[in-house]
Amino acid sequence: MTSRRRIALPAALVLSLSLIGPVAAPTVVLAQTSMEDPLDLRDARRVERMERVVRELRAIVFQGRDTGRPVVVQPAETDYRIEELNRRLTDLESVITRLNGQIETTNFELRQSRDQNAALEAQMSALNQKVAALEVFTGVPPATTGGSSGFSAPVSAPNTGGGGSPQADFERARGLMLSGNYDGAETAFESFVARHGAASLAPEAHYWLGKTLVVRGADAEAASAFIAAIRGWPTTPWAPDAVLELSRSLIALDRSSEACQTLAELSRRYASAAPSIQSRAAAARTQARCG
């Protein structure tokens, strides 16, 4: 009797479980709805980024295929960009260093050029002074005989005093000038024109006096001496140069209009002047801006 009860109880238990089975089913359903999603939001974003990268790569590959150009894919990470920027900065530093070296070299060459120019200017200034002194004899033919001496005339001993004959006093003054003693020559020629103003050598003495005054830079006195020399427009060999020197003295005195008139008379009265006189006259016309 007892054994039968033991067997019956399990059967009853099974029966009761089978009866309550439909009621327990909702509990199983609730357990399934509470399980986590295998792809969370972060993984979804990663997948989206990967898909975007794949699309970009496909676009690059297709573009390279269409254009025929090689496709170079470089990583876009921050480290690579920093490395690329560092490389560019290094290149820029190299370029700047090279440019600084070139600038220093250029500055050194400019300093050398300035020093050389200064030296050349000093040499040119010295040469101009020498030329100004030598121009006393430039373009002037030897004086004719019979009243005036040429460059080959014998040179008397330096002596600024007068008191002799007109020829002796003239030779003495010319000798001082040919020896480079322009101060002594100026005094001697002044003494000559004062003592022998009516002599035939007086016009030429005025001419050489004007030459000594040009060397000294006394342009007004030189112009007066040249005017006295060419009064009457003589036909002596030194006359064209005297007219030219008069025009140059007038230019130095800012009297360009009168200088141009003088140069016009030079061309009209001394058309057959020496080529050196004509070339210097052309330069004087340019300087005076003659029309």
What does this structure look like?
- The relative contact order is 0.05.
- The protein has about 290 residues and is an all-alpha fold.
- Helix 6 (about 200-215) runs antiparallel to helix 7 and helix 6 packs parallel to helix 8.
- It has ten helices and no strands.
- Residues about 1-10, about 10-20, about 25-30 and about 130-160 have low confidence and may be disordered.
Short description:
The protein has helices at 2-33, 41-67, 78-134, 166-178, 182-195, 202-216, 219-230, 239-252, 256-269, 275-288. It has 291 residues and is an all-alpha fold.
Task: Note the gap between the termini.
Answer: 163 Å
Counted by DSSP, the helix tally is: 10
Radius of gyration: 57 Å
- Alpha-beta classification: mainly alpha
Largest sheet: none
How many beta-strand segments? 0
User: Shape from CA axes?
Assistant: rod-shaped
Q: What share of the residues lie within helices?
A: over 70%
Average pLDDT level? 75
Strand content: under 5%
Poorly predicted runs are 1-9, 11-20, 23-31, 130-160
Q: What labels would you give this structure?
A:
mainly alpha, 291 residues, single chain
Topology, pairings included?
Layout: H1 2-33, H2 41-67, H3 78-134, H4 166-178, H5 182-195, H6 202-216, H7 219-230, H8 239-252, H9 256-269, H10 275-288
